[in-house]
């Protein structure tokens, strides 16, 4: 399975998830975080991620918990926009 998401500069991010490692929604959120951080230089807020994912911020919080448990991101406690990507698994390629 290959997931295509477009960054804010309309350059596609192509990711090849490992089977059984993350769900599609988890990969989608992870790619949104990487794309946003690459474009703007800082991580998105949970409300911005909820708007991108078209869900509520509680669902985003649960997915972020899963990503943190699996070692893909780290959340810095007490800091707004405190998301840090730990695994570099996305390959950027212009289409």
Helix/strand layout:
Layout: E1 3-6, E2 12-15, H1 24-40, H2 46-53, H3 57-69, E3 73-75, E4 83-85, E5 91-92
Antiparallel strand pairs: 1-2, 2-5, 3-4
Helix pairs in contact: 1-3, 2-3
Keywords:
95 residues, alpha+beta, Arc Repressor Mutant, subunit A, 3-stranded antiparallel beta sheet, two-stranded antiparallel sheet, disordered C terminus
Question: Can you give a write-up of this model?
Answer:
Helix 1 crosses helix 3. Residues 90-95 have low confidence and may be disordered. Helices cover 40% and strands 17% of the residues. By secondary structure, it is α+β, with helices and mostly antiparallel strands. The longest helix is centred in the middle third of the chain and has 17 residues, at 24-40. The strands form two sheets. The protein has a three-stranded antiparallel β-sheet, with helices on one face. Strands 3-4 form a two-stranded antiparallel sheet. It is built from three helices and five strands; from the N terminus they run ββαααβββ. The chain has a single domain (3-92), classed as Winged helix-like DNA-binding domain superfamily/Winged helix DNA-binding domain (Arc Repressor Mutant, subunit A), CATH 1.10.10.
């Amino acid at each position: 399975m290959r997931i295509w998401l477009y960054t804010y500069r309309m350059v596609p991010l192509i990711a090849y998830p490992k089977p059984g490692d993350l769900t599609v929604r988890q990969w989608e959120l992870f790619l949104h975080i990487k794309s946003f951080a690459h474009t703007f230089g800082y991580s998105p807020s949970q409300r911005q991620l909820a708007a991108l994912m078209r869900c509520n911020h509680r669902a985003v919080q649960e997915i972020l918990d899963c990503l943190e448990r699996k070692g893909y991101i780290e959340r810095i406690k007490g800091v707004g926009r405190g998301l840090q990507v730990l695994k570099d698994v996305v390959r950027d390629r212009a289409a």
